[in-house]
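Protocol step 4 of 5: obtain the predicted structure for the target chain.
Materials: sequence only (see below). No template structures provided, no constraints applied. The aim of this step is simply to have a reference model before the mutagenesis design in step 5. Sequence pasted as it appears in the construct record:
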Amino acid sequence: MGRLLDNFYRGLLWLAAVFMIATLVTILLGVAGRQFGFDIPGLDAYAGYSIAAALFLALPATLRNGDHIRVTLLLSKLHGAPRKFLDYWCLFAASGLSLYLAYYAVRLVWVSYITHDVSPSNDVTPLWIPQLTMAIGCIGLAVAFIEDLILKFLGEERVVQPAAEMARTE
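Step 4 output (structure tokens):
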């Protein structure tokens, strides 16, 4: 199961990279359009959709790689049972919050789809399409936190812990 989830996170990270390239392309098209006198409606909106997609799709992989900002000031001072309790509490709270976020992201996609909500900019894109990437990223983040919590209960830890010198600077 771990290998399947790692491939899922890696796939989402690759999609995030594709959306970063899409952001670059849309921005370059906008610059070229201003320079050479042509206009492609909605380029700014598509750049924004691509940035949001890249951000949300990269969330699970960044958690897996230990790249999320963690406040380790308190954790680094605790040892034994208090640290273990706080680790469990943090993973449980993060799992709950990410599930909450994923639920409402999926709900937003559904509401946008059934109400035929479209972008207010001149591209008139159905909003459920760019919102779908946000929902997928939120689902991936929730799965990653729940996986970490389950692994913690099983006595394994797969989240990369920050190095001691990094922990002091966070």
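Step 4 remarks: The chain has a mean pLDDT of 87. Helices lie at 2-36, 43-64, 73-77, 81-114, 128-153, 164-169.
Proceed to step 5.
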